[in-house]
Amino acid sequence: MYIGENKTVVLISSFKSYLQNMGYSKSTCYMLPDCIKGFFEHSKKSYSQITPKEIHDFYHYLQTRPHKLKAGALSEQYINHHVYALRTFFNWLEETGQIQYNPISVLKFKSPESNHRQPLTQSEIKQLFASCTNQKETALLHLFYSCGLRRSEAVTLNTNDIHFKQQILYVREGKGAKRRAVPMPQKVSKELENYYLEERINARAKDDEAFMLNILGMRLSGDCFNRLLKTILERTEIKKEITLHHLRHSIATHLLESGLSIESVRDFLGHGHLETTQIYAKVSQKQLQKL
After folding, report:
1. What is the per-residue pLDDT across 187-203, written as a single tens digit (0 to 9) for each?
2. From 25, 201, 202, 290, which residue has the greatest number of CB atoms within 10 Å?
3. CB-CB neighbours of 239 under 10 Å
4. Tens-digit pLDDT profile for residues 106-131
5. Is 113 a member of any domain?
6. Which position among 175, 200, 219, 249 bears the catalytic label?
7. Which of 152, 123, 126 shows the shortest CA–CA distance to 141?
8. 198 within some domain
9. Residue 114 within a domain
């Protein structure tokens, strides 16, 4: 036990409550406090004793620490999650007056390399839709491609978040506590409504709120979404690896190619900055010159 451990446990609990009150997603409210817990277990100091050195040492420890679940080292993305958690945590302490000096404010860390995810072509998107054999599969493609949802957003989507007549889908728990309204074309709204009125009702829902259900009538998990997409993909002639996020990336690219402004695409995706939108969408030099 290190000095101030009990106080640190209480502090992390307060930090988690802060994240929940700010509207961060459930996964973020779990992940960030868990990262902070790991940091204090490594430093063995109370929060008031932390200096840039302890944070710097922890960062290098993560780079050499083996993965607990599989062979090899930790990924850059995983390490970056810890850096994000530490920044959020110490910024919160500073803003609430619990520390006078923010030890992470003077540190800079390497940004994780982009995975250069390539968007699908519109022809490939058509192949995916043509390969659907039921309304659930079609609904999945509309949520991730036509509506540009993140996986966590689709998992938490409830029936009362979709207004079919108004052709609006509301994201209540977006990344970074951002909420947004997503406009839907009439065809998209109608096909989501068809799933809701026909296939979903026949699923004998045990979860009355969830929009997408599994065969047991419970909320469809992120892993189930992944498996369902893989099943659709296997019926096509597309050979490259495709994830749910490829669909979100693809709609952003296609909207930009059709002439929609990058600001509008940013709002559609729920990004806070144009730079983030440029990572997800392949923007031509001509479009960038218009900014």
Report:
1. 999 999 999 998 888 77
2. 25
3. 7
4. 888 877 655 556 789 999 999 999 99
5. no
6. 175
7. 126
8. yes
9. no
| Catalytically annotated residue among 81, 82, 136, 150 | 150
Concerning whether 280 is annotated as a catalytic residue, the answer is yes
Q: Give which of 11, 55, 52 is closest to 33, Cα–Cα.
A: 11
Side-chain half-sphere CA neighbours of 42 within 13 A: 19
If asked whether residues 147 and 210 sit together in one domain, one would say yes
Q: Is 271 annotated in the active site?
A: yes
**Residue 81 annotated as catalytic:** no
**Which pLDDT tens digit goes with each residue over 160-176?**
999 999 999 999 865 65
The secondary structure of residue 201, as a DSSP letter, is: H
Concerning whether 150 is annotated as a catalytic residue, the answer is: yes
73 and 175, same domain (yes or no): no
Q: Do 39 and 130 reside in the same domain of the chain? A: no
Residue-number span of the structural domain to which 182 is assigned: 122-289
Supply 63's token pair.
């780079």
Residues 149 and 284 in one domain: yes
CATH code of the domain in which 61 resides: 1.10.150.130
Which candidate in 136, 248, 249, 254 is catalytic?
248
Choice among 81, 151, 266, 271 that is catalytic: 271
